[in-house]
Amino acid sequence: MNFLRSASSLALRPSSHILTRRAALPATSFAVRHLSDSTKKTIEDSIAQNKLVVFMKGTPHAPQCGFSRAVMQILTVQGVDMDGALKSFNILADEELRSGIKEYSSWPTIPQVYINGEFVGGCDIMLNMHQSGELEKLLLKEGLIEPEVEENPRA
After folding, report:
1. Nearest to 99 by CA among 53, 46, 48, 31
2. Is the peptide bond before 147 cis (omega within 30 degrees of 0)?
3. Is the dihedral of CA 50, 54, 58, 59 positive or negative?
4. Residue 31: is its pLDDT beyond 90?
5. pLDDT at 32 over 70
6. φ and ψ at 106, to 5 degrees?
7. Matching InterPro entries, A to Z (predicted)?
8. Among 88, 132, 129, 128, residue whose Cα is nearest residue 110
9. Concatenated DSSP letters for 34-78?
10. How far apart are CA 28 and CA 63, in angstroms?
């Protein structure tokens, strides 16, 4: 019985010899390209033409995953105009876009947020930036939200 357990665990772990041989091969021999020229152009054009772009599962008003929902909630709390300032793509409606955006950004997860042409990150990074106040500063700097007007209490 122990022999079977040991044999099965060895079968799941490639030896260092195999890993060394694979690492010596050119990366392109194993790479699978998902990003077509037309999808790349769509991504680049939308990122260049819009200050805030989110590639997500679902839509801003009907997210279809908890991480996409969390990013939409963060942007809403920050005061982003969800119908005006935000350009979103539902990656569930386009399989090529779904795999292509991951290749484009070299980021494996969805949602993906771009602000002023720069990849910001996914849900975890947006949450950390929100909590630290960094996201608000960035959104203000890029003109995606208005500064809060503080009321002066009467003395």
Report:
1. 31
2. no
3. negative
4. no
5. no
6. 60, 35
7. Glutaredoxin, GRX_PICOT-like, Monothiol_GRX-rel, Thioredoxin-like_sf
8. 88
9. ---HHHHHHHHHHHHH-SEEEEESEETTEESSHHHHHHHHHHHHH
10. 35
Q: What is the pLDDT of residue 148?
A: 81
Backbone region of residue 121 per phi and psi (left: phi > 0; alpha: psi in -120 to 50; beta: other values): left
- Backbone region of residue 63 per phi and psi (left: phi > 0; alpha: psi in -120 to 50; beta: other values): beta
The residues pairing with 52 across neighbouring beta strands, listed in sequence order, are 86, 115
Q: Is 26 helix (H, G, I), strand (E, B) or coil?
A: coil
Whether residue 142 contacts residue 115, with contact meaning beta carbons closer than 8 Å, is answered with yes
The residues, any chain, with a CB within 8 Å of residue 138's CB and separated by 6 or more, are: 115, 120, 129
Q: From residue 6, how far is each of 57, 68, 86 by CA, in Å?
A: 41, 41, 53
Residue 34's contacts (CB-CB under 8 Å, 6 or more residues apart) are 96, 99, 100, 102, 103
Q: 58's torsion region: left (phi>0), alpha (psi -120 to 50) or beta?
A: left
d(CA 113, CA 88): 9
Query: What average pLDDT does range 14-26 have in this prediction?
Result: 43
